[in-house]
Amino acid sequence: MGMETPLIYQYQIRNQTAEYKIIGHWTDQLYLNIRAMHWPGGGRQIPYSICSHPCQAGERKKIVKGIPCCWHCERCDGYQYQADTYSCKMCRFDLRPNENHTACRPIPIVKLEWSSPWAVIPVLISVVGIMATLFVVVTFIRYNDTPIVKASGRELSYVLLTGIFMCYATTFLMISAPDVGICSLRRIFLGLGMSISYAALLTKTNRIYRIFEQGSMSVSAPRFISPASQLVITFSLTSVQLLGVCIWFGVDPSQAIIDYEDQRMANPDMARGVLKCDISDLSLICLLGYSMLLMVTCTVYAIKTRGVPEAFNEAKPIGFTMYTTCIIWLAFIPIFFGTSQSTEKMYIQTTTLTISVSLSASVSLGMLYMPKVYVILRHPEQNVPKRTRSLKGED
């Protein structure tokens, strides 16, 4: 009795009827009737049978547990790249993956450009301010021996104008491409211009205060109110700022760095390295802190001298100058430090800082000097000596 031929069946569902159909048999070898086969969806083409598809570029093979010849394809995402067939690795901190995550490439470096809107506005303010400052200086030099210029205290006026000029010029250092030289100049001049300005104003208000405080108690003049003494006091106050900067240079020399954390986005394609000077927010506070101290002290003296006679006509303008300056810097603090987590941090903070410094200089220039220049040029008949209390300085 011969062996029966093994038949091959396929379970098929057609017209909502299920049945087994013979699609082949085995007699020494396999015979299949391809046309008799039926697949889900009504297709007759034999499905492609495989446990895993090949992985694309930038994908690693993750082996299925218990089935070593099968895998899942897992994308290397974020800052990862495909190191080999079975693993992804993180790119170095200054690199990002290429488009298909098969290798790493350098992260682009950015800096504040002169053509950027963040730079154009501060530069425009500074240019106008420098031109106005030079105009005042030229006017004062030309009319140096007139009563208004003399009454303003010529020596301290020129010192204050120098500080105002330096405040405006600081903008160009803050926007220039950082290197060791530029970073060093930033440390020196960012606080120096303000220190010179407020040291001169503090010396003026202190002089006025001491004159009337002494006058209420004695007929003799207070000491150190001569022009030479005033210059010595001003430069002594300013030297504290320079001493602090020198110590800073000794402890932590200037350098330009590339910060890859400021603009490290979740999307690697948007990541940028920021070229900047190595000045932290804390260092900036220390750098400007002394200028702020001079400003606050000057404001206190301005309040104390607000009731002096009109003959000492600089007391009230200095007071208004200091009140306005305090408002500017009170507005600066939340804007500057409130953007520390922003991806636009470098641009916002640089613009905020430069505009605040320039506005402070503009307030001093506009309130203390422009009225004098207006009288000198437009109303020379008012540029005459006024009766004031005569006090001879004692050194």
UniProtKB/TrEMBL annotation:
Keywords: Cell membrane, G-protein coupled receptor, Glycoprotein, Membrane, Receptor, Transducer, Transmembrane, Transmembrane helix
Transmembrane region(s): 118-144, 156-178, 184-203, 282-303, 315-337, 357-377
InterPro entries: GPCR_3, GPCR_3_9-Cys_dom, GPCR_3_9-Cys_sf, GPCR_3_C, GPCR_3_CS, GPCR_3_mGluR4, GPCR_3_mtglu_rcpt, mGluR
Any one Pfam family match given in the protein's UniProt record, by short name: NCD3G
Topology of this chain in the membrane: Multi-pass membrane protein
Protein origin, superkingdom: Eukaryota
Predominant cellular place of this UniProt entry's protein: membrane
Entry's localization field: Cell membrane
PANTHER family: METABOTROPIC GLUTAMATE RECEPTOR
Family named by the database record: Belongs to the G-protein coupled receptor 3 family.
UniProt name for this protein: G-protein coupled receptors family 3 profile domain-containing protein
Organism: Oncorhynchus mykiss (Rainbow trout)
